[in-house]
């Protein structure tokens, strides 16, 4: 006789920060509310299901503790949510997610377990075969989860009718069910207003967002205003769970109301807009900004992603007035040839001009650069670092090119026979196992060595440190100097230690 489960759905945000970031994860990186856990929880709860979120990342739980929690709760369905806080984070989260799933199945073999996320959608059959799960979701997940719980409760549908489900039948054959449709009404169906299910006192912002006032990293929240991205950058896997580059937006009113609620309920003033591309639709951006200005919430500190070719100078004043203190720009490379190959077709003069205009408007710039893109060589990588030092932005993220599953670059790497990481942890930018993309021009070791050296050269630059001192003060400068002393261990660099 089946024992009735008290809880319908347990959503698990996997941990593994130590393996992903090494020592950087202790104090420097952000700890963010899990967006997709929120979205899935809201969708399920609105449809009458009982839901709990286990944020093992925020709670700093190890895999044994995760398994014990699941065993004590006994949900009808446990879901390992592997989306990450940016598209590239999904694959690196597979390490912690996979280990947690194995621990759960060892502890509670009969527990129904589903995995969902960007990486999972890109490689559904492989995930089902390799991981300790019963089911995999190909797609964004909300309708798949609700239908699957109905099937498990033997009330509504059978497994072969669950849209977006990947599973094995009694003969062991892997079945890919027809996909679930994308959710179109974000305000009604993917609002994510389940903050009561999260440990809100556990989240913190990136260190750089709070330069000048490092104590303001907490309390913190990340919110979204849109899903998807219309662009097709070669290195990006954002649209893997959607199978389209469609761009869906929430209403500006719902975004403003959410920020006002988080401020009044939890005292949050430090926010991230988690959209892959917030500064895109001018009307959408302007209406959100006007709404925030009207609310007049004091001391807001918001950061968001933008593109060099989507930031309009006339938008900068309203962004600044609305509380946007940082914009993150994907500059990627100092070589036009390399940028063109990555579908980032803008001129270097455009980059310089927009960075200066953003800074002149009183907004700081976090610039993102990538070393080891397919057309890169040692000369072009040096050009990228030289451009970074010329721009001298308030912060810079230096990445190694990775062929993430679900990205065009992954397909290219397979076609050309380029060597890929041996494990999912190898896709993490800061892990010991980090193994960047090897191309016809540069090896993985060359790329990683250059990337790590670039970090040290940039953040140790007297010109950069002087700018930081002038803009943020000596406390922030000292913080950056201490950050630069942290050295990451890198397996492919053997006994050398990379500066980070």
Query: What's the number of structural domains?
Result: 2
CATH arch. level architecture of the largest domain: Alpha-Beta Horseshoe
With strands numbered from the N-terminus, the spatial order across the biggest sheet is: 2-1-3-4-5-6-7
How many angstroms does the end-to-end distance come to?
A: 57 Å
Share in β-strands = 15-25%
Oligomer: single chain
Brief descriptors of the model:
single chain, 500 residues, alpha/beta, Rossmann fold, pyruvate-formate lyase- activating enzyme, 7-stranded mixed sheet, 6-stranded parallel sheet, 19 helices, 17 strands, 38% helix, disordered C terminus
Task: Explain what the structure shows.
The protein has 500 residues and is of the alpha/beta class. The protein has two domains: 9-176, Rossmann fold (3-Layer(aba) Sandwich), CATH 3.40.50.2300; 209-499, tm_1862 like domain (pyruvate-formate lyase- activating enzyme), CATH 3.80.30.20. 38% of the residues lie in helices and 15% in strands. It has 19 helices and 17 strands. The protein has a seven-stranded mixed beta sheet, sandwiched between helices. Strands 8-11-12-13-14-15 form a six-stranded parallel beta sheet. It has a two-stranded antiparallel ribbon with strand order 9-10. A hairpin with a 5-residue loop joins strand 6 and strand 7. Residues 496-500 have low confidence and may be disordered.
């Amino acid at each position: 006789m089946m024992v009735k489960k008290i809880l319908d759905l347990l959503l698990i945000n996997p941990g593994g920060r130590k393996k992903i970031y090494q020592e950087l994860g202790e104090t420097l990186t952000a700890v963010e509310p899990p967006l997709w856990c929120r979205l899935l929880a809201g969708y399920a709860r609105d449809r009458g299901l009982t839901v709990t979120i286990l944020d093992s990342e925020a709670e700093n739980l190890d895999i044994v503790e995760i398994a014990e929690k699941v065993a004590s709760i006994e949900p009808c369905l446990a879901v390992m949510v592997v989306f990450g806080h940016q598209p590239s984070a999904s694959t690196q989260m597979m390490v912690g997610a996979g280990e947690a799933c194995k621990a759960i199945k060892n502890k509670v073999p009969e527990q129904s377990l589903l995995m969902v996320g960007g990486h999972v959608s890109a490689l559904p059959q492989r995930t089902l075969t390799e991981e300790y799960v019963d089911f995999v979701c190909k797609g964004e997940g909300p309708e798949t989860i609700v239908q699957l719980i109905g099937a498990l409760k033997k009330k509504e549908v059978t497994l072969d009718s669950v849209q977006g489900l990947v599973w094995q039948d009694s003969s062991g054959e892997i079945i890919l069910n027809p996909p679930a449709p994308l959710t179109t009404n974000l305000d009604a169906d993917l609002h994510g207003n389940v903050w009561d299910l999260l440990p809100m006192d556990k989240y913190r912002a990136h260190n750089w967002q709070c330069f000048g006032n490092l104590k303001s990293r907490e309390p913190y929240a990340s919110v979204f205003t849109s899903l998807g991205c219309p662009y097709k950058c070669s290195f990006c896997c954002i649209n893997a769970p959607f199978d389209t580059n469609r761009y869906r937006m929430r209403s500006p009113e719902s975004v403003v109301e959410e920020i006002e609620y988080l401020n009044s309920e939890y005292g949050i003033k430090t926010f991230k807009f988690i959209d892959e591309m917030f500064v895109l639709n001018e009307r959408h951006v302007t209406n959100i900004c006007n709404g925030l200005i009207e609310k007049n919430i004091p001391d807001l500190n918001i950061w968001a992603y933008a593109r060099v070719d989507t930031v309009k100078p006339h938008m900068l004043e309203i962004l600044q007035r609305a509380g946007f203190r940082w914009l993150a720009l994907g500059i990627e490379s100092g070589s036009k040839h390399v940028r063109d190959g990555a579908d980032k077709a803008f001129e270097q003069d455009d980059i310089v001009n927009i960075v200066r205009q953003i800074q002149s408007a009183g907004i700081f710039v976090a610039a993102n650069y990538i070393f080891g893109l397919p057309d890169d060589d040692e000369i072009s990588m040096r050009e990228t670092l030289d451009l970074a030092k010329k721009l001298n932005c308030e912060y810079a993220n230096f990445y190694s090119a990775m062929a993430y599953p679900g990205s065009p670059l992954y397909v290219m790497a397979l076609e050309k026979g380029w060597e890929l990481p041996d494990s999912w942890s190898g896709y993490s930018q800061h892990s010991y196992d980090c193994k960047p993309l090897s191309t016809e021009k540069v090896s993985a070791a060359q790329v990683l060595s250059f990337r790590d050296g670039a970090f040290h050269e940039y953040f140790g630059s007297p010109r950069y440190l002087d700018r930081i001192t002038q803009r943020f003060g000596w406390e922030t400068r000292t913080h950056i100097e201490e950050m630069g002393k942290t050295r990451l261990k890198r397996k492919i660099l053997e006994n050398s230690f990379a500066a980070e």
